Amino acid sequence: xxxxxxxxxxxxxxxxxxxxxxxxxxxxxxxxxxxxxxxxxxxxxxxxxxxxxxxxxxxxxxxxxxxxxxxxxxxxxxxxxxxxxxxxxxxxxxxxxxxxxxxxxxxxxxxxxxxxxxxxxxxxxxxxxxxxxxxxxxxxxxx
Length: 143
Known about the structure:
143 residues, mainly alpha, Arc Repressor Mutant, subunit A, two-stranded antiparallel ribbon
């Protein structure tokens, strides 16, 4: 399993939005320079975050604003917003285990519950972490 770069870009985008609010207009071009990415990629992620209700995007001179404090934006919120397959199981199961084989016929029963628990633990851990923690670490690094 691998989480795409969309997750870390989204965390960067949200953190930078707070860090530079009030001193810079927060646009996709501005954020793309900080992220080191193409503005189109940043805009696509911004749209996903907007659809999830995490940011508000104002066209023209407005830029983006956060809809709630960073402490109320969990990693799980971001993950669900930008990872297009986040509603699916983390683990893809091979499609045709041989039902006549003692392993193939029982692999789902033996493994499905364990994989579901791993996913549940992963999402619970993401829910415990928030963007404010990332912001605080960046501010601390400035001192």
